[in-house]
Amino acid sequence: MTTTTATHRGFWYRHPGLRLGGLLTAPMAWLVVVYLGSLAALFLTAFYQVDDFTGQVVRSFSLKNFQNLFTTSAYYQSVFRTISIAVLVTILCLVIAVPLAFFMARVAPRNWRPVMVALVLTPLWASYLVKVYAWRSMLQPETGVIAWFLKPLGLGGPGYGYLGIVITLTYLWLPYMILPVYAGLTRLPDSMLDASADLGAHSGRTFRSIVIPMIFPSVVAGSIFTFSLSLGDYITAQIVGGKVTMLGNVVQQTYVTNLPFAAAVATLPVIIILLYLLAVRKTGALENV
Amino acid sequence: MNTAIRVRDLRRTFGTVVAVDGVDLDVVDGEFLTLLGPSGSGKTTVLRMIAGFERPDAGSIELDGVDVTNAPPYARDVNTVFQDYALFPHMTVLENIEYGLRVKKVPKAERRARAMEALEGVRLAELGDRAPSQLSGGQRQRVALARALVNRPKVLLLDEPLGALDLKLREQMQVELKAIQRDVGITFVFVTHDQDEALTMSDRIAVFNDGRIVQLGTPAEIYEFPASEFVAGFVGTSNLLRDETARAVLGNAGTWSIRPEKIRIAAPGASASAGERAVAGTVREVIYVGMSTRMVIDLAPGGTLVAVEQNSGRHADQRLAMRGENVTLLWNTEHEYSVN
Fold first, then answer.
1. Residue A282 has what pLDDT?
2. B234, B257, B291: which is the final residue of a domain?
């Protein structure tokens, strides 16, 4: 008996390394060049200067931009303001999203779920600008819907400013919190809740000791979205912020005249997000996601 | 004897499906009672209603003489071992076991001591600091058992707890569970669809079908004297002779059950001794299953019976050659059991 070897086909089968290379080259090139490359350029530029006389970028290394950022009160105030807005938005999203997601995932009849998920997603289909302008008209002092509602109670509306930004951003990023929390809650096996009740815990205790720790990774995932999206936003601040500025507005105001300074300002949110991710990693919430 | 659980006329419907259709049950203090039945027969729903996870549409449940029909799970002195174990993944093994005691505000020192004792009871003393995900299936099973038993419940409910284990481990856990039950003296109510498991472990078995208990008795009673055709078929090999066939073979109409191990296979033409019946037949199929050989035999008057022969000889596999041969089946007429 003779053995013949089938060699005329299956080149890619016999060279798995080449196959993998072929598949990954294009996306890896995109990731490295476009994404990491531009990020590196941003970091480098943050340490450059502008020649006051010619307005040209001078490629000499210094920390002046960061010094400027942390010694000029208008700038460092907007840093803290931006962080506080991002934190507030995240907390508000959490407070609204957890009960809502809990209702969607565990209380409402199972066949309502797709409808409710679609309803949560609907705002994402509308243009960002349309939604922000809608809030602008609702927040309008004296004549806006919110002011009109609060008038009989003897209250004025939030108007344009810090609170207006927080409310609008909370509305904008809420779906990004609801969806991961909802997904986390649907993955929670019924038997976990039964087991907790079986071991003597009433509903409140079960929620505190079982549900919250088990959906914590989902909450963290959602908070990464709401926190980082808020941190980088500037259009909302422009439209409903009145005189209040966020970091993004500082970048927008300075990048034409002083590109290195704008780069330094833009670097801050990146660093803050990295620190946030590191802190989150410490809690173990990023494992098994 | 005290009654640990008294269930009266329990009913539960899911949509249009009647899951539990009037169940009465008295569980004796300290016994190992198994609820046995095919899936969808209502056994798990009854267990979940005793635990308090489902509310009955009608009927009542008493635990130790107290009506708990409307009490939430956390107010009932029972604990459950779940089919998927339901160990909390964000807690260590020891924290899992301590959870029930922590919720009940047992002081920390006592809590720790009792949890360690429970862990030693299931022979996992050195694994207390592990996460549940680091344990094997059999170890998780034992942690779930310790987590329930540490609370010293009046009754332990077990919902197919061995279903996810492989055969060897399952058989080992059956023996172990039975030993633990004997040691702690707690009433066990055990749900399974596995008839071997039920026969192996139980003091009594309640056989479920279509939301009702169709027979309640000791394993031997259930096996030797099945109350209906369903029980005869579900527990043990279905070996039934019906109507016309029964009249031709046994001289009596109706449905009759003969357990396979009661039947002897003899050479063609062998005659029956006193009290025995001899029926001619042809071997249709021979199945070698290691410990024994199963033979499917078509009877000459009609009908088919399964007979089991122990493989006590050295060359039991020679029986495989018997396919197609004529034989005579012999059995004692007292083993003909009517299941009408």
1. 82
2. B234
Continuous segment of H or E residues that includes residue A37: helix A37-45
Q: Which residues lie closer than 8 Å to A279 by C-beta, 6 or more apart?
A: none
Please report, as a single letter, which amino acid is at residue B30. G
Question: For residue B150, what is the nearest residue in chain A, using CA coordinates?
Answer: A199
Question: How large is the ipTM?
Answer: 0.85
d(CA A282, CA B312): 64
Domain carrying residue B292: 240-338
* Closest residue to B88, CB basis, from A202, A205, A210: A210
Residues B206 and B256 in one domain: no
- What is the pLDDT, as a whole number, of residue A287? 65
Mutation for testing the B interface, residue in A193, A198, A216, A220 having most B CBs under 10 Å: A198
Whether the CB-CB separation of A163 and A189 falls below 8 Å is answered with: no
Which positions ≥6 away from A26 have C-beta within 8 Å? none
Whole-number Cα distances in Å, B178 to A25, A129, B136 = 60, 68, 21
Mutate to test the interface with A, among B44, B79, B82, B133 (most CBs of A within 10 A): B82
The total number of structural domains that make up chain B: 2
Average pLDDT over residues B164-187: 89
Q: What residue has token string 């006389």?
A: A53
What type of residue is B241?
L
**Tens digits of residue pLDDT in B200-240:** 999 999 999 999 999 999 999 999 999 998 999 899 887 88
Contact indicator for A224, A177 with CB cutoff of 8 Å = no
Q: Of B218, B234, B250, which one is at a domain's C-terminal end?
A: B234
Tens digit of each residue's pLDDT (9 = 90 or more) over B63-122: 999 999 999 999 999 999 999 999 999 999 999 999 999 999 999 999 999 999 999 988
Interface of B with A in 265-304 (CB under 8 A): none
List of residues 6+ apart from A218 with CB closer than 8 A: A180, A181, A183, A184, A185
**B115 to chain A nearest CA, in Å?**
14
Helices A259-283 and A73-102, axial angle in degrees (round to 10): 40
Q: Which residues are within 8 A (CB) of A187 and not within 5 positions of it... i.e. 6 or more apart?
A: none
Same domain, B282 and B198: no
Instruction: Give the distance from residue A275's alpha carbon to the nearest chain B alpha carbon, in angstroms.
Output: 24
Q: B89 by DSSP, 3-state: which?
A: coil
pLDDT at A159 over 90: no
Tokens coding B58: 């009608």
